[in-house]
């Protein structure tokens, strides 16, 4: 049986080691707004930066402050310790103010030779879309020039097709929790979703085949209630596992390492980069996108309708303003719809916080009558 | 503790307005004796602000400032009665665009919060507590959450629409304004700063700005007239000239410019820039400083022990403990980054040139200029180094407002680079610029005292008591670095150091 959690907890994992041996260039990125297809098409291995639930951030705290989110501090800590030294380059996106600071400090204190910034718009109007297409063209040119590779339209289309295939398989596994019987826990699914960003595309596709193949032989899980989780950047697999231990099974989520990976809209015709720009910008279910709450709410409503949770738990990492505010809006709106909601502020990765969070979730389950 | 109940018309805006209508009746030539008598009637929080503002040596500037704010608030309330649209804007949106409409008027959320903190008993805390009671996290920014908390009580003056110009430079500012518009169900107009400080980003920003103009015209139901735009732009240009006059005067050693003038300057920028009242306020500040210079009066004394530039925000919750206290200890406060908007004169030739000039002003508003764009650390550092050198500051202070996640995220780098490029030390504080609960003023004073005593006095001794003066160009201040200028002040300073 595949141990997805163990695989997801390795840094570097075996795929990184194998890629280095092959001479494949590995590019680090942080945000869901980064179209990985551009890297895939150039023969790169795009690797999504994670905090890995690191809690000791003394190196990072010398650069970022304690008023910056723990996820970003954890990522920077790993960077400064050298854990991400296997990156041949870094690509920044302006995901949020904390992330911007993280990248600026990383490049200041521990620079990578290749460093590129994709400036993602905060709005989804025509001007912003044109801008984002240009940004992807700039990214492509920067990669081609620095690494002396060619990223052709044909390669982009092939990479996009591969990602569509992966999305289809991943969705099947993800939605396997929506039946009455669940055989993969929320923690395991989150582990799988984080692997999406740390395994090369072709190998991830094969991994998904393995997961699907062994699914029927997994024992069904027992649970008291079905929960939908949402909120700030969370790759804390152990946290989700701990919360599920009190009986709440995570059937869906809107995390950026989770359910937000799925892109619903079919892009219009256009060049591959135009299609990618549309696909990514119009499916960025993150509160860093302003004037777009209605779309995110519709996304959550759709998840609720299909996954049928008994309640919704919304997290935000301490000092995460975007999700801190978004969660209030969501709570108000969901409660008006009669959906029970629990909002929790937490410190990223803090083992000391788990007890408190478990108690709150336990109480929530009792409130749900489960 | 008694529960504070917010009743009808006891929102922040309503209370501030009623207080200003009283304060506005004071005579500008009021004597110290009468001032003290009136102040004794005031509750302690209000006393500490007005005691500072009504200092005898500040009266001309203070009264011009209060007249400006009174006019600002009166016009907002009158506008509502006349059926005009009152549009809430953040501090980093230049209000002159709204002033050019006949059917609209701007109110600035952070200025309202500040006024509440300054003049109300209890400051802004009850409104902040109300916002917290809704579930908003305590790491929100008090600068706007105080006023917006009051709006959300439903018992206060509330806007017809909200403009948000913080996307790209401040997540928390953008989020809270969007949240309030969502709850109130009022239109929300956004102006994004692209993450590119070069020409390409500036061009996109210009398109965003013109699109915003069109949407506002549609909302207000009025096409902006060229003559109205020109009238406002001409007044903007007068304000710009006075801004640089004050900048130059502030740079003198010792400085004849009272510390509180920086607040008066940027409060004007955020409210009545482009209006007669704004011109009068700035003119009063300039005239006061010139008069001080002529008679040899320097608010922080002839021998200044330190000339700190506050590299981001100051503290607003205790004027007496902040502005006056520093001056009494011969610490000449050089102002803060809210002053660093570096306005440029607007070409008033045509509607297009005026709107282009206003877009340029929006691009350069404080926080947008420093925190929007490609690299927060670099853009912020450029302006800080420019201001340190231009104002002859000899140290910098970072107030450490907890909610400024962007500045906090790059402060460590910037502090190092300030030392390297400008050769001055930096004091790092932690506090909330609008709420005294986090760090009381006594603690801030203690930190500043220790810094001055242990760092600044020692430096002065090593210099033999002499303060190095940087060359001042004849006439107004040198042009600050353009945001997309690769040969920025910071880099130029580095070259100068190397030479």
Report on this model:
The complex is a heterodimer of chains A (370) and B (499). Chain A is an alpha/beta fold and 370 residues long. Chain A has helices at 4-8, 14-22, 36-41, 58-61, 70-81, 97-109, 126-147, 153-174, 186-196, 201-214, 237-244, 272-281, 293-307, 321-336, 351-367; strands at residues 26-29, 45-48, 89-93, 114-118, 225-231, 248-253, 311-317, 341-346. Chain A has a four-stranded parallel beta sheet, with helices on both faces. Chain A has a four-stranded parallel beta sheet with strand order 6-5-7-8, with helices on both faces. In chain A, helix 14 links the parallel strand 7 (311-317) and strand 8 (341-346). Chain A starts with a helix and ends with a helix. Chain B has 499 residues and is mainly alpha-helical. The longest helix of chain B is centred in the middle third of the chain and has 25 residues, at 226-250. The radius of gyration of chain B is 21 Å and the shape is globular. In chain B, helix 6 crosses helix 8. Chain B has helices spanning 12-23, 32-39, 44-53, 59-81, 96-99, 109-119, 125-133, 142-152, 171-184, 199-220, 226-250, 261-271, 276-294, 319-328, 351-363, 368-371, 376-391, 405-422, 441-462, 489-498; strands at 85-89, 104-108, 161-164, 188-190, 308-310, 395-398, 426-428. Chains A and B meet through helix 6, helix 7 and helix 14 of A and helix 9, helix 10 and helix 18 of B.
């Amino acid at each position: 049986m595949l141990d997805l959690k163990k695989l997801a907890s390795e840094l570097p994992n075996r795929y990184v080691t194998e890629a280095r041996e092959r001479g494949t260039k590995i590019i680090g990125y942080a945000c869901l707004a980064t179209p990985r297809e551009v890297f895939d098409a150039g023969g790169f291995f795009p690797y999504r930066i994670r905090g890995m639930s690191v809690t000791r951030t003394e190196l990072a705290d010398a650069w970022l402050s304690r008023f910056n989110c723990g996820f970003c501090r954890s990522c920077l800590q790993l960077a400064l310790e050298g854990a991400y030294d296997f990156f041949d380059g870094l690509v920044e996106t302006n995901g949020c103010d904390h992330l911007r600071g993280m990248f600026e400090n990383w490049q200041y204190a521990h620079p990578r030779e290749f460093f590129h910034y994709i400036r993602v718009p905060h709005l989804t109007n025509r001007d912003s879309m044109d801008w984002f297409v240009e940004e992807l063209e700039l990214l492509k040119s920067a990669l081609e020039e620095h690494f002396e590779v060619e990223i052709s339209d044909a390669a982009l289309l092939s990479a996009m097709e591969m990602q569509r295939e992966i999305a289809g398989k991943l969705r099947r596994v993800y939605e396997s929790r929506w039946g009455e019987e669940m055989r993969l826990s929320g923690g395991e699914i989150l582990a799988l979703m984080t692997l999406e960003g740390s395994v090369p595309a072709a190998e991830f596709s094969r991994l998904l085949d393995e997961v699907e193949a062994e699914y029927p032989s997994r024992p069904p899980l027992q649970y008291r209630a079905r929960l939908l989780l949402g909120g700030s950047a969370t790759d804390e697999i152990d946290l989700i596992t701990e919360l599920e231990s009190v009986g709440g099974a995570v059937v869906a989520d809107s995390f950026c390492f989770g359910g937000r990976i799925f892109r619903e809209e079919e892009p219009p015709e256009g060049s591959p980069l135009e299609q990618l720009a549309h696909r990514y910008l119009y499916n960025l279910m993150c509160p860093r996108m302003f004037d777009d709450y209605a779309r995110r709410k519709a996304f959550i409503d759709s998840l609720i309708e299909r996954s049928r949770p008994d309640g919704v738990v919304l997290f935000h990492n301490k000092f995460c303003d975007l999700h801190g505010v978004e969660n209030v809006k969501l709570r108000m709106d969901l409660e008006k719809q009669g959906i029970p909601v629990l909002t929790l502020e937490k410190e990223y990765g803090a083992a000391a916080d788990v007890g408190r969070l478990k108690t709150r979730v336990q109480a929530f389950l009792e409130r749900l009558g489960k | 503790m008694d529960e504070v109940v917010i009743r009808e018309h006891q929102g922040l805006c309503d209370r501030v307005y009623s207080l200003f209508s009283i304060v506005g009746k004071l005579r500008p030539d009021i004597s110290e004796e009468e001032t003290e008598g009136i102040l004794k009637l005031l509750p302690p929080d209000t006393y500490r602000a007005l005691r500072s503002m009504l200092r005898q040596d500040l009266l001309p500037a203070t009264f011009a400032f209060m007249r400006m704010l009174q006019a600002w608030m009166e016009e907002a309330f009158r506008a509502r009665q006349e059926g005009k649209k009152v549009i809430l804007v953040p501090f980093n949106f230049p209000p002159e665009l709204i002033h050019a409409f006949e059917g609209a008027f701007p109110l600035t959320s952070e200025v309202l919060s500040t006024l509440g903190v300054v003049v109300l008993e209890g400051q802004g805390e009850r409104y902040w507590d109300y916002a917290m009671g809704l579930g908003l996290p305590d790491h929100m920014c008090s600068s706007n959450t105080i006023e917006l908390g009051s709006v959300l009580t439903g018992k206060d003056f509330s806007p017809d629409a909200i403009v948000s110009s913080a996307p790209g430079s401040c997540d928390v500012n953008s989020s809270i304004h969007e949240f309030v518009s969502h709850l109130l169900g009022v239109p929300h107009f956004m102006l994004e700063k692209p993450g590119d400080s070069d020409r390409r980003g500036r061009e996109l920003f210009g398109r965003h700005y013109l699109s915003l103009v069109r949407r506002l015209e549609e909302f207000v139901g009025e096409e902006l007239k060229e003559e109205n735009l020109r009238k406002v732009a001409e007044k903007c240009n007068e304000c710009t000239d006075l801004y640089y006059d004050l900048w130059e005067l502030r740079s003198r050693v010792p400085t004849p410019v009272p510390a509180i003038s920086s607040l008066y300057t940027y409060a004007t920028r955020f409210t009545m820039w482009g209006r007669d009242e704004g011109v009068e306020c700035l003119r009063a500040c300039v005239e006061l400083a010139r008069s001080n210079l002529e008679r040899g009066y320097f608010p922080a004394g002839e021998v200044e022990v330190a000339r700190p530039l506050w590299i981001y925000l100051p503290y607003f919750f205790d004027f007496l403990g902040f502005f006056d206290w520093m001056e009494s200890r011969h610490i000449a406060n050089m102002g803060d980054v809210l002053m660093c908007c570096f306005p440029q004169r607007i070409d008033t030739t045509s509607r297009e040139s005026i709107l282009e000039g206003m877009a340029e002003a929006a691009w350069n508003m404080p926080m947008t200029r420093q925190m929007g764009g490609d690299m927060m650390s670099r853009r912020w550092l450029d302006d800080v180094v420019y201001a340190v050198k231009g104002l002859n500051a000899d140290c910098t202070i970072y107030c450490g407002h907890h909610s400024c996640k962007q500045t906090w995220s790059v402060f460590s780098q910037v502090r190092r680079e300030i030392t390297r490029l400008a050769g001055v030390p930096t004091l790092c504080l932690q506090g909330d610029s609008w709420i005294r609960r986090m760090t009381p003023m006594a603690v801030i004073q203690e930190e500043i005292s220790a810094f001055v005593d242990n760092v600044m006095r020692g430096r002065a001794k090593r210099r033999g008591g002499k303060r190095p003066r940087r060359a001042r160009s004849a006439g107004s201040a040198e042009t600050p670095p353009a945001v997309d200028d690769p040969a920025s002040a910071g880099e130029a300073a580095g070259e100068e150091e190397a030479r």
